[in-house]
Amino acid sequence: MTTILDHYDIQPVTVALVPVKHTDYCTMVIETDRTFYVKKPPLQIIKDACLQGYSTYDGRRNAIIHITGYKRKVPILINLRLKIFAFPTLSPEQFECIWIFPPHIISIKASTSKGKSIQSVITFKNGQKLLL
Question: In sequence order, which residues have a C-beta less than 8 Å from that of residue 84 and are 6 or more positions away?
Answer without folding.
Answer: 10, 11, 12, 14, 49, 53, 77, 78, 101
